[in-house]
Specification:
Helix content is 25%, strand content 33%. By secondary structure, it is α+β, with helices and mostly antiparallel strands. The chain has two domains: 34-93; 97-218, Immunoglobulin-like (Sandwich), CATH 2.60.40. The protein has a five-stranded mixed sheet, with no helix packed on it. Strands 4-5-6-12-10 form a five-stranded antiparallel sheet, with no helix packed on it. Helix 1 packs antiparallel against helix 2 (58-93). It is elongated, with a radius of gyration of 26 Å. 14% of the residues are buried.
C-alpha cells in the first residue's frame, strides 16, 4: 500500500488514488472508458459506411453522402447524450449526507459508515438523563494515503434537531484514538446522549482540523 498508485483528477488536477471514482477534492466523477468505447464504435461505423460508398454509382454515392451526414449527426448526438449522462451521474454521486452502508474518502483516509443504533446500558449507574437515550455509530477507517494518519472519536460531533449533544463513553469501543500506518484499518464507535423525541440526528465528522470541512452521517434506527 505504501506504493499505492495515484492519478490526476481530470477536473481539478489534484493527485488522487488511482482507484478513486470520485475526486475527494472537487467531488467530480472521474469517468471510465465506457464513453470512449462508444465513441470509437460510432467512428468505425461512420468510416465503414463512407468506405462502402466507393463502388456505387453517382446516385448511390449521393445517398451514401446523405447517410454519412445522418450518421455524423447521430454520432454527435450520442456523444452529447453521454456527456449529459456523466454530468447527471456526477451530480448524483456528490453527496451532502451519508447513510449506513455508504463510504466517504479523501486522499488520506477512507471512512465506511458501518452501523448505528440505540445503546442500552445494563449498568444501573450508567444511564442517560430522563427523556434522553444513548446512541452510537460505528465506522471503519482505512489509511489510503502515503504517510501515517491519525483518527479518533474527537473528530465527531452530534446534533439532534440542530442542537449539539454531549459525547459519552459508555461503550467498550468508545473514545478510540489511533495513528494508522499506510494501508492499516481500525474500527471505532462514537456515543452520544440525545433526546428520545429527536426527529433528526446527525453525526458531523471533521477529517482535518485545519479546514472547516464537515462530513455528515445521518443516524437512523
Amino acid at each position: 500500500m505504501s506504493n499505492q498508485e495515484t492519478k490526476l483528477c481530470k477536473h481539478c488536477k489534484t493527485e488522487i488514488p488511482a482507484a478513486a471514482k470520485v475526486c475527494p477534492n472537487c467531488r467530480k466523477k472521474q469517468g471510465g472508458i465506457f464513453k470512449w468505447i462508444i465513441i470509437a464504435v460510432i467512428a468505425l461505423i461512420v468510416i465503414g459506411v463512407a468506405a462502402g460508398g466507393g463502388d456505387d454509382d453517382k446516385g448511390t454515392a449521393k445517398q451514401v453522402s446523405n447517410t454519412n451526414t445522418a450518421e455524423s449527426t447521430v454520432a454527435a448526438n450520442d456523444v452529447s447524450t453521454i456527456a449529459q449522462a456523466e454530468t447527471v451521474v456526477e451530480e448524483t454521486e456528490t453527496k451532502d449526507k451519508y447513510y449506513v452502508g455508504d463510504t466517504w474518502e479523501n486522499k488520506y483516509v477512507l471512512v465506511s459508515y458501518d452501523e448505528c443504533g440505540e445503546y442500552v446500558s445494563d449498568n444501573q449507574f450508567i444511564q442517560p438523563k430522563d427523556g434522553n437515550k444513548y446512541i452510537y455509530a460505528k465506522f471503519t477507517f482505512e489509511n489510503i494515503g502515503k504517510s501515517d494518519t491519525t483518527v479518533g472519536s474527537w473528530d465527531f460531533d452530534c446534533y439532534a434537531d440542530g442542537f449539539a449533544c454531549d459525547a459519552t463513553y459508555v461503550g467498550e469501543d468508545s473514545g478510540f484514538s489511533q495513528t494508522l500506518s499506510v494501508g492499516r484499518k481500525i474500527n471505532g464507535s462514537v456515543y452520544f446522549e440525545v433526546p428520545k423525541d429527536a426527529t433528526e440526528i446527525e453525526f458531523e465528522y471533521s477529517p482535518n482540523f485545519l479546514t472547516s470541512e464537515k462530513i455528515v452521517f445521518v443516524y437512523s434506527e
